[in-house]
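All the exercises in this workshop are built on plain-text protein records. A record pairs a protein's sequence with a compact description of its fold. Read left to right, the backbone structure tokens trace the chain's path through space. Once this layout is familiar, the rest of the handout is easier to follow. Here is such a record, shown just as it appears in the course material:
>
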Amino acid sequence: MRSLYKTAAAVLIMYAAPLLSAQQGDATQGSPLNGGRLDRNRARGPAKPTPHWPDGRVNLGPLPGETGVWEGNAGSTLATNIRGGIDNPRMNLPTNIKISEVPFQPWARALYDYRQSNTTKDDPHVRCKPSGGPRLFHTPYGFEFVDMPEFHRIYMIEVGGPHTWRTIYMDGRKHPKNLEPSYFGHSAGHWDGDTLVVDTVGFNEKFWLTREGIPHTEFLHLTERFTRTDYDTLTYEATIDDPGAYTKEWTGGWLIRWQPDQEMYEYVCQDNNRDAKHMYGGQR
């Protein structure tokens, strides 16, 4: 955590210039799972009901014999962004607070503003690093749940991470003590009715909490709720409890749309990727 505090201290000193325009548009542009699919989703007609397994648990994947993935809502976020920043009001939850209402500690707000001022060019994701926490769920090209009740586990697998997976233990175990901090932490889940509730601790500080640069520390305790309200819609809600970066806990989230007839595919994150806008703050 010392490295993050040192960065924050430097930001507090240097951050005096007005904010530049933050990155625009949807990073999924050009993807087969891009935001344009939302218009075609409306043409499907009424959504099918939420699918369940024979034992009554919600099925978070496709029906047997079908295929599909959950899309990555690149423009969605936990809190309404500053003017010109990333935002997707069509998909963000109506209960989301504004950035001005997020209970940042001063250093954390300064770091967020700094990342915005640099067009989020320092985003670890564009340097082929895994996307932890909410960042995983607005990463392009989609993700899926693999439910393995015989092993009391649910796996989350995504393409654009790149090729990352996350394990949710469903056997009632507690979090181990003295966890080695990691990108995905240690996740324990349970069902609350039709909602999958996932409790995670043990994060490192090497990723951004969200695409537009909301920070966190190793003290982060993340509670996520996944509710498949119908066949085509997954409500994602995250509660952030991080006394290292915030003065109190807060909650935000967005809707995630189902993309039928899609499957996971090979994705290569190039080490020599040169994205001028997002990595250097310049033009494409």
Notes: The radius of gyration is 19 Å. Helices lie at 2-14, 37-42, 106-117, 276-280. Residues 178 and 255 are 34 Å apart (CA to CA).
